[in-house]
Every structure is written in structure tokens, then in C-alpha cells.
Amino acid sequence: MPDGTSVLYIEDDIGSQRLVQRVLERHGYDVAIAGEGMEGIDLARQTQPQIILMDINLPGMNGREITTRLRSLPNFRQVPIIALTANTSPGHRERALAAGCDGYITKPINVVQFPQEVETFLQGHRERLEEQEKIQHLELHAQQLVSRLEDKIRELEEANEELRELDRMKSSFIVLVSHELRTPLTLLEGYAHLLEEHANTGNADDYPPGLLDLVNGLDTGVKRISQVISEIINVSRIASGRLEISVGPVRLASIVDEILDSHAETTEQRDLRVQVDDLSDLPLIQGDGGQLAIAIGNVLENAIKYTPDGGRIAISGRAVGDAVDLVISDTGIGIPHKEQRRIFDHFHILESIQHHSTSKSAYKGGGLGLGLAIARGIIDAHNGRIWVESKGRDTDTNPGSTFHLLLPVKQEEAPDLPLSV
Ligand code: ADP
């Protein structure tokens, strides 16, 4: 029988693992070892062993729990599972059998008899309890399971609460640091402005050549840092449910025009053709114009960023029932199917950071992976929906991406705004 017969031994003690493995392998068995319960269940599924030897006192799930779990899987109803344990206290054997074990061998094993004992189980030997005894021990087993479940749930709840607290601390810290950075940045902005004024109005001979270019460079850098800080503050607010929305009538056509104007220089430089349908007939929607401009701006900035020079960006909109569907599509690099939901999570970026070019508007320019998380937070706060369709990512064929921003025309009175970033 043993010729290559597969055995799975679930045991955390290395000494026992080695001994059992050596003894059984010498008798022609093929022994796989798992050091704890979950690994044991996974390995059992993968290797479909002909017999399972089960230590009872294991970390995590104990041997009785693993046995009960295995018995619930169709392939393991008949496979012999034998408890192998040093615990000989009263009731221990009965509880192992009630949990689904077919036999009970005590450790330390007798190396001479052990292979024969294993063989008898393979040939069909089973240890059974009287029906009454079985019911009694099953009850005990069930009670222990429920009590362990309760302990685990309490542990998880505590761990969750700690994580939530850490998350709150992290968000407050981020907002605090961002505000601290804002102050010196405002100073820098002011000085850059003063320098620019001097350079423009003063006597050119008094200043080093090219000063104006340097000042412009400084100004661009300061603006970019300021933008990054705003993004961080915004995403922290959204994550902690502190995004404030002041609702008023919003004309999407004006928002789109303004955003496009602010990117006109880039789209021209990069030879991107922007095609905008007439949005003036779309119904006015109730929402926060400033926040919606950020959301739409982020999606549009990405369309610019992830479309190679010479590509096309199209913007259209239509009323769908009581909502407006704003559609922004590009002929860019596209988004892999499996990432199409996750790109809306914060800090989720697909590109390796080394490949990020420094400018935000350049092809595949740098970003924090916050733009779409912010957009989703804002759209969620308007009870809307944002999603993307794309055939996948390909930087050679550029399959493109199409983003939909579905916004209800009306907001509920005194809305209880759900936030889900
Ligand atoms: P980032 O600041 O990195 O642009 P976003 O949250 O705006 O972060 O976007 C997350 C990721 O989604 C980006 O890193 C990019 O890989 C992908 N992505 C977003 N928009 C597009 C698009 N129009 N085309 C291709 N990929 C996109």
C-alpha cells in the first residue's frame, strides 16, 4: 500500500515533523508537511492526500477545527484524518473523534508500530464513538467553536478600532503638515511675485541676465507644490468624511470651458485635438461648482497626461433620466481591465514612480495617485457615480479610455452625503 501513498501531516513542532516524515518516508510514503491550519487546508486542497495526520494543539485554528472544516469539503468526507497528539487528558480523544477525526494516536509515536497503525487506517479501520457519547462531545465541540469565534471577533474588532484610530491620526497629521507647509509657501509665492515685479519694472542693467526666466521657474515650482498640498488636504477631507459641499446651480458647459482654457497652452504645445460637443443644452445641475470643477479637472488632466502628443480628447454630455452623464474620452494608453476599479482608490498609480516625468501636463507626467480618488469622493458626495471603460493598456496601439461622470440633476433636501474614498 505505501508505495508513494500521499500523507499530509499538519504539525507546528519541527521535531515531530522530522520524525514522522523520516519514519513514514522510510516505509515508502510520500509526506507533505504544513506548519499551521490554513496552510494545511490549502495544501490538502492542492495535494489531495490519501490520509491526513493532524496535530491538535496548533497555533491559529486548532486540529479539531481544521478537521471539521475539511469534513465540510466534498473531497475530504471520506479521507482518513488521524489525530496525532501528546494530550492524553480525559475527553480529548472523544472530542477529536466528534470533530471528525477517524483515529487518535498519541505522541511520542512508537516508531516501530506507527507505520502499521497508519496503514490500518488506510485499509479502512475507523475509531467510532457511541451515538450518545458523540452527541455529547459534539455539543462541547460546538460550544468551544462558538466561544473561540467570539474571542476572534472581539480581537478583530479591537484591531479594527486601533487601525481606525491610527488612520484618524494619520489623516490629522497629513492635514497638519500640509497646513504647516502652506505658510512658508505663501511667503515664497509673495517673494517670487515681488521679484517678478522688480524684474519687470526696474532697470534691466541692475539684474543678472535671465532673471525673469528664473523667477518664472520659481513661480511654476511653487504653484505645483501648492497644488500637491491642496490635493493632499482634499483627499484627507474626503477620506475622513469632512468634505463640505455647498450646493447651488451648476452649468457643466462653463466648468468644462474654464478647465480647457487653463490647459490650452499644453494641449496646443502637445498637439492634442480637443473636441467638445455643445453642452449648453444640458440641464443645470445642483451641486458644488468648485468641487465639481476639481473632479472634472482631474479626469481631464489625466486624459491630457495619458494621451501621447498628437492624440484626441473628446467631451460630450447627455441627460439620462434625472441625471447627466458627462463623458470624457481620450486616445491614450488605456487602462488594464483589472485596474479599472482600483484607480479610484487613493495612492493607486499604475506606472513605476521612476518613469514619472516631472511635469504634470507632460505625457505620462508625475502624479500622486490622488486625482481620481478625489474625483470619486466629490462625485460620491453628489450622489453620483464615476467609472471608466477601456479595452486595456497598450502604449503602442493606444486603445484609449472613456470616463463617465454621472451626476443627478437634483440633490436631496438636506442630503446625508455618503463618502467612500
Ligand atoms: P495620478 O496622479 O497618478 O494621475 P490618478 O488618481 O489621477 O493618479 O490616476 C490613477 C492612475 O490611473 C494613473 O496613475 C494612471 O495609471 C491611470 N489613469 C488615470 N486616467 C487615465 C487615462 N485617461 N488613461 C490612462 N490611464 C489613466
Topology:
Elements: E1 6-10, H1 14-26, E2 30-34, H2 37-47, E3 51-54, H3 63-71, E4 81-85, H4 92-98, E5 103-106, H5 114-122, H6 131-201, H7 211-239, E6 248-250, H8 252-262, H9 264-269, E7 273-276, E8 285-287, H10 289-305, E9 312-320, E10 323-330, H11 371-381, E11 385-390, E12 401-408
Parallel strand pairs: 1-2, 1-3, 3-4, 4-5, 7-9
Antiparallel strand pairs: 6-8, 9-10, 10-12, 11-12
Helix pairs in contact: 2-3, 4-6, 6-7, 7-11, 8-10, 10-11
The chain binds adenosine-5'-diphosphate.
Explain what you see.
There is one protein chain. This protein has a 5-stranded parallel β-sheet with strand order 2-1-3-4-5, sandwiched between helices. The chain is 46% helix and 15% strand. It has 11 helices and 12 strands. The chain is an alpha/beta fold. Residues 298, 302-303, 306, 330, 332-335, 343, 348-351, 367-373, 401 line the site of adenosine-5'-diphosphate.
